[in-house]
Design brief:
The complex is a heterodimer of chains A (155) and B (197). Chain A has 155 residues and is an all-alpha fold. Chain A has five helices and no strands. The chains are: A mainly alpha (155), B mainly alpha (197).
Amino acid sequence: MSPTPAPPDDDGLSPAARADLERRLRALPLAPLPPALEARLRLLARALVAARAAPRPWRRLARAAAAILVFLAGWQAFAGAAPAQAFAGPALEAPEAHSRRLAEGLAAQVDAHVPDPARGLGALGTGALLLGVGLVLAARPTPPARPASPPGAPR
Amino acid sequence: MSQAEDLARDAADVARARSGDPGGFEALVARYARRVHDLARRILRDAHEAEDATQHAFLKAWQALDRYDPGRPFRHWLLRITTNLCRNRLRARAVRRHELRPRGGEDPLPEPAAPAPAPPSEAADPRLAAAVAALPEPYRTALLLRYQHDLSLEEIAEITATPVATVKTHLHRGRRALARALGGETPGAAAGTEGGA
């Protein structure tokens, strides 16, 4: 006569089934780290530590450069929108219905493919704000440099 | 190596990193990169996004290193950062999908069905790995943190910002779903799942 199987617990699993599932889950292997990611992480770790120890003027310059890049991106978005609107604008004034429909179709195409000027202005504003922040950061007084290794720190 | 030794080693590396010693942070990255990457890969189910999330997790950890409490395990802290990042990415992915979906049209950004397959040497239990990948995210994350990363219910509750009772529910439902997916592979599972719970 075979022993009565243990009643299922609240998972709907018998204790044996649950133990087996837990064992298999614990034994799930970690995926190997892709070599390219491993190399990037090593570089990232070194760069982060080096950035903290880098001379202050370079950090200021990097911040200002980043802000200028964002500013330029905003400007590009705005400038890209302006000519397209100028192109579509006069055609919308055409009196004939056919030309008007054509112009509306053209305007819809322009709207679909060209950044909205409001978005361009928004990006421009954000760029200007970031540029200002970058300049303020660049002009900020430099705090005293952090010691590379305080006395008594474990090496 | 014991848990106390792990804690001491991590604390020493964190102290070195904070003091500007490049070796400290590099050691932490080398020790935990694989664990972080695997968790990100299994939560996000996207190999490329998992690589981004892994880098982002270490960047965030570095930025917040001064706020880390050395009395607590570094591993848990890092897994918490990783889990939060991955969940944020899943939310962003859902928003993108919603915004890009044409009215009445097909989803232009289908959800990845499963992570990229691991190399044969690592795919020790491919059916289980696939079943875990198919679970809803909260169950998947709870099961991974509990069994693969060996965290307690309280630690998982802290990491996922959910009550312990909710973690228990997620684990319970996750195990039940796995048992169903694996069918007769798990001894006693078939009979058990028929009974429900």
